What does this fold into?
Amino acid sequence: MLFNSVVFIFAFFPLVVFVFFRIARRSHLLGAGWLVFASLFFYGWWNPRYVLLLVASIGFNYACGFYLARLVRDRSTSLAGWVLAFAVTANLALLAYYKYANFFLQIAADVSGHTFGIGHVLLPLGISFFTFTQIAFLVDVYRGLAREYNFVHYALFVTYFPHLIAGPVLHHKEMMPQFQEARTYRPDWESVAVGLTIFFIGLFKKTVIADGVAPFAGPLFAAPGQPDLFAAWGGALAYTFQLYFDFSGYSDMAIGLSRVFGIKLPLNFDSPYKAVNIIEFWRRWHMTLSRFLRDYLYFSLGGNRKGPVRRYVNLFITMLLGGLWHGAGWTFIAWGGLHGVYLVVNHGWHALRQRLGQDPERSTPWGRAFGRLVTFIAVVAGWVFFRATNFDDAVAILRGMAGMNGVMVPAALTAIVPGLRSTLELAGVQLALGGTTRFVLQYAWIGVLLPLTLFAPNTQEILGRFQPALDFRGSAFSATRFAWRPSPTWGMLAALIVTGGLLSLSRVSEFLYYQF
Amino acid sequence: MSTSARYLRSLSLATIALLALVATINLLVDPYGLFRVVRIDGFNAIKSQAGQRAVVFKRQGAERMRPNTLVLGNSRAEIGFDPQSPAWPASMQPVFNLALPGAGVDAALNEFTRVLEYTTPKVAVVGLDFLDFRVDPAAQADSTPPNADPMLWLRERLSALVTVGALADSLATLKAQHDPYATSLTDAGFNPMRDYVAIARREGYYTMFRQRNQENAGSYVRGPRGIYLADGRPAPEFRAVERMIDIAAGSAIQLKFVIYPVHAQTLVLFHQAGLWPAFEAWKRELVKRVAGAPAGASVELWDFSGFAPYADEPVPPPGDTRTEMRWYWEAGHFKKSLGEVMLATMFAAPGNQTRWGHRLTSSDLEDHLQRQRAARESFEASRAAETSELAGIINSATSTAGRRR
It folds into this structure.
């Protein structure tokens, strides 16, 4: 079931909320149980068979966690280590089978010349997310940072439908306490108002913006050929905005839905294209995944405790595996590796500035503007690998973006300014036959979305007065009179967003991050 | 009431009001002709966006008209046969053009059978497109028809009332009322291509020909080259032709199959892409089916895919935005002027036909194919520069397709 579907918005969600608060008045545990049931139904709407897989995964990990907690309490450290290794391996094996088996068998086939096949394996939705959250739980139990929880609460933590399919990647220590609080089970009008507003901002971002700009990205990646400068940049930028508004829209919807129940989720996006360097970009993009990779992969590899060289190697490996997490393909690995290199260069630059006696966190306004531009271009170049079907296509598009396939503008546009045609022809610009409307619309979208992502306040800043998410630290915008408040005037303004989102529901499309 | 509850009430009421406003606008403007609440010249009479929902628009229009003559096919037929044309014999009026852009012969059969649920036309003119019959030899002959959507009726109406697309189309419809070049569909289902008039004046016919040739060449070289499955059976689409013949015979409907008069440039592209043998085989298969029609059935197969004197109409040179072509919009789509010549040929008294267009029968099929081959060779020789440019387009499409493999 998709958040941006009529059945979800007008049937499933209202029913779940209504029944939850009715049941929770009598028993908190039953209320939580109802949410688990609703979440499994939500998951099974897509493919009922995989509900069993999800339930088995929860049962297995809960049992392992329970046993591990006992061992840790009894100080059986060695056995606990083995149990943890077994449980984590089992989780990764499940993920490897469903997500990576065909990819690795293809590599084996390419290397050996023999064919290995297990047939087509349908990827269970959200498997990367529910595997990671549970591995984090097991590791924390082993580290003594988590204890055995109530099973219903644990099942709800994993299955909770707002985050189940595409995150945010939740951490048990920020969710379990909320499931235990009595106020979670009482309806609160403020939470409903804040939650629905965030949800509908997310819906607008997805259905109006992401789905609106998508047709200007798809054709380039479907058949790049030898794109010229404008075609390559137009398609790459359109995808850059499509992905951001799609995924951050999804995250807003998840945060908003959860808030209706009074449960706050962590932030997943914080205007990532405003980042002045790539380190900051990863603090603003898919924040819960970055947090997970840092805490459970980068730190496990040794982090920065073993010298600068090992630190850079660890960083690179973390990003490489982060790329692989997004998909079983060389283009994802290349994307992760590229960002690994970006981060190494960025940390190296900071180290150099420190050595020269400068504070790397401080820059001139021009320096910051330049950093923002370079970061943005680097990120867009990365998205080309992320989205391209194969390496050749990615390279063809990057060549186009570098101007190596020439520059082309629609011939009809040159008629607007007298003499422009001959000037352009003298400059070596080619004139395209047709395609004028598409060219103008594509760059009109880009012209609107670029300043929106670079300068406009984001969802949590707009809702900043009402603690919209767990880790929101406030912002200057939230203190201004333009920040949202639950007033009738804001109700009418928000209605424009709600109406825009609802009117765009007919072109239902999946979220890009469902495939991960 | 708390401030949050007041906010939610204001939000809900304003949303309902906005949705109602949008629904009212869409209901009155009715961009797809679904509701027909009002029809006012200068307000909503020209349905510039009806093509977005051509299937629904045309099905409703045909049901209202209950035509004596039905035009079926794809965009070539939609653009080429004007039901209001005087070339249609009076006895065949009213005519409805139920041809749908992108529709294959299966879709045409589907529309044909739907019409028969409420009326029995006297004549059906059915455009046949060779490209629809190309098949991958490894394909399965049997395909599962898509499941019928029980909610379709409701879904169509809701999406015509409360969607941003419908609102945009309503606004475009309002704007189009005073735009002589706005795209539109007539009430009889014909597309007059008014937008192409503007494009031709802005970019010139050469641009339109070249752009479409480039697109088509890609599909010619990427797509299958034959019309037979691996086991030797012809493409499943022929079954739709047989079914139409059976239905027409059973309902005493005159059936006129038409092989479209594509421009000579398209025929040369067929040849250069290696499709010519399949093109001829396709005609042979069609002739077999027409010849096998039940006794007493009125089924004709007309081949308008020749060269002179219409399909070889010269294309104005690059940069020429003044010269208008008389018979073609671009190499794949003929104008209604040529459609009228075709109608005059097909509906003329025996012995009174023009020298263009040929009624295919098994008796002279091979001679006819031989003459067409000779005509193509003659065209390629006499228009060498044009032929060479087309070869360049095919070569470019071939290398692009090779890279993608």
